[in-house]
Amino acid sequence: MADAELEEIRRARLAQLQQQASSREGNGGSSNQEEQRKQLQERRIAILNQILEPAAADRLGRIRLVNESRAADIENRLIMLAQTGQLRQKVTEEQLKELLNAVAENNRKEEESHKIVINRRKGGWDDDDDDLLNL
């Protein structure tokens, strides 16, 4: 990614932070917030168009149709990678698949860490032992 593109991304992020700070002060109305949200979305789309190949962008669009939150998570990760300079070239569809698999694996590991496992003791009473008590 070129230095000019990274500088543009940084300027957009700085403008976003400044807009958020001004809206916290109570200066912005709902229409102003709506416009800021639209501008932010447009910037996100522009950044994603710069870092994704068309096939990868198409796949991400299909993911968005199925699972909005997962697509937003992937987009955030891609934008973060671009902002930190870890992307050297446009992301291909195969690289996007790898990222999706890594995120899915990470989610599975998280879910497994919260699992409760119940182990039953062996050698306890069973139905046949009830007959002995009734003698």
Written description of the protein model:
There is one protein chain. The chain is 75% helix and 0% strand. It has 135 residues and is mostly helical. The chain has a domain at 38-112: Helicase, Ruva Protein, domain 3. α3 packs parallel to α5. The mean pLDDT is 82. One of its GO terms (molecular function) is DNA binding.
Oligomer kind: single chain
CATH hierarchy, class of one domain: Mainly Alpha
In terms of DSSP E residues, the strand content is under 5%
Number of helices: 6
Under CATH, the topology of one domain can be stated as: Helicase, Ruva Protein, domain 3
Radius of gyration: 25 Å
* Structural class based on helices, strands and sheet pairing: mainly alpha
- Shape descriptor: elongated
Summed over residues and divided by their number, the pLDDT gives a mean of 82
Q: What is the share of helical residues?
A: over 70%
* Second CATH tier, the architecture of one domain: Orthogonal Bundle
The largest pleated sheet is described as:
none
Question: How many beta-strand elements?
Answer: 0
- Which residues sit in consecutive blocks of at least 5 with pLDDT less than 50? none
Q: Specify the CATH homologous superfamily of one domain.
A: PDCD5, DNA-binding domain
What is the chain-wise order of helices and strands? HHHHHH
Give the distance, in angstroms, between the N- and C-terminal Cα atoms. Answer: 84 Å
